Amino acid sequence: MKSIANWRGCRAFTRASRRLSAACENLAALMLALIIAINFLAVAARYLLGEPFGWSEEAMRYGIVWAVYLAAGSIFSRGEQMAIDLIDLVPWRILREAAALVSLFATLTLSAVVVGFGLPYLLDTGQVSPSMRLPMWIPYAAVIVGYLLIAIQVVAAWIDPPQRASLEADA
């Protein structure tokens, strides 16, 4: 029997999900670099000019939230998310594979719930941030986008599971 990972559409999907994962990871790294630059400029303005930037803390906070949610899909695609590895100690492969499928299904379900319940709140907000006057749907959208990215990586992991490093290699 052929593996689903060998189907043409599935191969294309997993390649696209890997490219998306890499792009999101690079964007998150760029955002973290930008946050460091904003922090440096804010400290310099406070101590050299005596006048701090009022928007810098808020921009850094929202940037960190976006960077975390953008990186979440990449972390999942490599199998580096936090997990309890007790099931790896079970000697029966079929049970380990069943537990992995249950975990993928639970993660996909959580993603659907967060996106499903979060989207109406995202579209209904009329709020703006205190300092930057940024529409609050922009920072709130990080959660929705992050869970959509996780859902894409869950489907890709179902098609072609990531190879996780063993616990012995970390020791």
TrEMBL record:
Subunit annotation: The complex comprises the extracytoplasmic solute receptor protein and the two transmembrane proteins.
Molecular function GO labels: transmembrane transporter activity
TM annotation in the entry: 27-47, 59-77, 98-117, 137-159
Stated name of the protein: TRAP transporter small permease protein
Membrane topology category: Multi-pass membrane protein
PANTHER family given in the database record: 2,3-DIKETO-L-GULONATE TRAP TRANSPORTER SMALL PERMEASE PROTEIN YIAM (PTHR35011)
Keywords on record: Cell inner membrane, Cell membrane, Membrane, Transmembrane, Transmembrane helix, Transport
Purpose of the protein: Part of the tripartite ATP-independent periplasmic (TRAP) transport system.
Main location: membrane
Pfam families, per the entry: DctQ
Domain Tripartite ATP-independent periplasmic transporters DctQ component: start-end pairs: 35-159
Protein localization: Cell inner membrane
Gene Ontology, cellular component aspect: plasma membrane
InterPro entries xrefs: DctQ, TRAP_DctQ
Protein family (similarity comment): Belongs to the TRAP transporter small permease family.
